[in-house]
Amino acid sequence: MTERRPLSVDLVLVPVDASDESTEAVAHAAAIAAEYDASVHVVHVLGEDVVQAIEDGIVDETEVAADGQAITETAEQIADDYGVSLSTSVAYGFSTKMKLRHPGSVVLDTAEELDADFLVVPREPLSGDPGEVLAKAAEYVLLYASQPVLSV
Hints:
The structure is a single chain. By secondary structure, the protein is α/β, with parallel strands linked by helices. 45% of the residues lie in helices and 18% in strands. It has helices spanning 20-36, 48-56, 61-82, 103-114, 137-144, and strands spanning 11-16, 39-46, 86-92, 118-121, 149-151. Strands 3-2-1-4-5 form a five-stranded parallel β-sheet, sandwiched between helices. The longest helix is centred in the middle third of the chain and has 22 residues, at 61-82. The mean pLDDT is 85.
C-alpha cells in the first residue's frame, strides 16, 4: 500500500464574473486558503459583449471599471473575513482573433501562469445575464484542469 501525501496548497485560484455564484465561490476559495495557510487569486473574466465593446472602442469604461471595482471590493471583504491574502487580475474571456480562447481556457491558462494549486469555479445557472460568463466554464475546467477543482 502506498502512502498518501497530504495536499499542499499555496495558491487558490477562483475565476469570477458578475454573478452571485461567483461571490459564493470566493467564499469557498477563502475557506480553503485559510485551512491551508494559502492565498487567493481572483481573476475577473470579462464576457464576450464587454470584450467586443472594448475592442470596438464603444464601451462605457466607467461602467466596466465600476463592475470590476465592486467585484474586487467584495472579494477583498471575504478574504479579510477569512484572514487570507488576496490578489486580483482581469482577463478577456473571449477573443475575436483567437478561436480557442473561451472562459474555460482562460481559467486554465491563468492557473498555469500563476502556478495555482487548487481551483474553485462557480457552476452557474444559465440565466442569460450578460455579466455571467462562467456558466459553461466549470465543466471545461473540471475536465481539463491538472489541479484539484471544487465546483460550487
